[in-house]
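REQUEST FORM: STRUCTURE PREDICTION
Request ID: SP-0412
Submitted by: Lab K.M.
Chain count: 1
Length (residues): 134
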Amino acid sequence: MHIDRQRAYARNLRQHMTGAETLLWSRLRGRRLQGFRFNRQVEIGPFIVDFLCRETAVIVEVDGVTHSDARDVAADARRTAFLTAKGFVVFRVWNSDVHANLDGVLDGLLQVLESRTRGRTPSPLRGPPPSQER
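STATUS: Completed
RESULT:
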């Protein structure tokens, strides 16, 4: 029963994304960021993460003012610890950064994604490794 409620909640979150999530999703969806595939509002254990690149195990969390008081910061730390223990990397970004500096956010995210793929065979949907692009 709990799983059904969580799945319904994730579906609701996909249908009602914040402005910052919608903006970021417009640049992540359909492999638009160098061929990396993302899913949105994905259930991982007891949590629902904003965006997930399964190929690299990178999670993107878009945080607003609700993540700024001490209790919420502590909850986010517990959440990050759980996800990290499962092998994920959590890339956190503020709503305001997505709105004010989307290209900078995407550049930072791309660095994290590429650092997780070094030593692996690149996806055929992505271009050559960064060292060969220049």
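NOTES: The chain has a mean pLDDT of 82.
Reviewed by: T.R.
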